[in-house]
Design a protein that fits this description.
The protein has an eight-stranded mixed sheet with strand order 1-2-4-3-5-6-7-8, sandwiched between helices. α2 packs across α3. It contains eleven helices and eight strands. It starts with a strand and ends with a helix. By secondary structure, it is α/β, with parallel strands linked by helices. α3 links the parallel β5 and β6.
Length: about 260
């Protein structure tokens, strides 16, 4: 395990692979998860790819810091970590709120970005009413009280039926996160609209979504892709909101040639 003091909090991260590898991908994870969601995908990538993984603010083993954090804080956490590790330029891949963070990073530090992979995300996700409803449910019943509905959005019915042990494990991952951090991140997503950013993106960008994503449906992600000049849009069949877990081989099959293309 590796830790760094970044932006007033302790950030848990891991750099996997050869530091001198030809390609480096930095991953930013989704709400209610930690960086272990990316490990199935890493197993599908080639030996010439190294990855930087980290737990988002208040998730996993990363500290929460002061209450009332905003999207700019999440972006600064990532920028600070990349600078700490010494990465000059990389491919950045963000899932859900992680994809929003990566969009914010492009606005703040475009010099760091070689390419972007935006997974199951958008510049604006959900409505204020929906986020407020989820926050209220957590305050009443904890994360366990929303776990069933979250699992329905994260994974397809096939995953629920055929991978029951995995489903139980990912449910535990959700339930063991900090409720305060989860609520705080819900508030960040609720209050963030990055719609001005996608039209400014000038690096190659791959936008990916599961065909059965219940959180950021394909039409929402396609709308973001249409805003980005020259962006590529791909749908993964038989997949919910977390393709790096449910269909890592198909996500890797999209990312690898994209990363390697000159």
């Amino acid at each position: 395990m590796a830790f760094a003091a970044i932006n007033g909090i302790t950030v848990h991260y891991e750099f996997i692979g050869d530091p001198g590898a030809r390609h480096t991908i930095v991953f930013s994870n989704s709400l209610g998860t930690d960086f272990r969601i990316w490990l199935p995908l890493f197993d599908e990538l080639g030996d010439d790819v190294s990855v930087l993984l980290y737990d988002s603010r208040g998730h996993g083993l990363t500290g929460l810091g002061a209450a009332g954090f905003v999207m700019e804080d999440l972006v600064d956490d990532l920028v600070g970590l990349v600078d700490h590790v010494g990465i000059d330029k990389a491919v950045f891949c963000g899932l859900s709120v992680g994809g929003m963070v990566v969009q914010g990073l492009w606005r703040k530090r475009p010099d760091l970005v070689r390419k972007l992979v935006l997974c199951d995300t958008a510049p604006k996700i959900g409505t204020a009413e929906a986020w407020d409803g989820r926050i209220e449910a957590i305050r009443k019943s904890g994360l366990a009280g929303i776990a069933d509905s979250v699992m329905e959005r994260w994974f397809t019915s096939s995953f629920h039926e055929e991978r029951r042990v995995d489903l139980a494990g990912y449910r535990l991952m959700l339930e063991r996160q900090s409720a305060a951090a989860y609520i705080g991140t819900c508030e960040v997503i609720r209050d963030t609209d990055l719609s001005a950013i996608p039209p400014t993106i000038t690096v190659p960008t791959l936008c990916v979504v599961g065909d059965r994503d219940g959180s950021t449906p394909p039409d929402l992600v396609r709308g973001m892709a249409d805003m980005i000049p020259g962006a590529r849009f791909e749908v993964i069949e038989g997949c919910g909101h977390i393709p790096c877990v449910e269909q890592p081989q198909w996500l890797a099959a999209l990312i690898e040639p994209f990363v390697r293309k000159a």
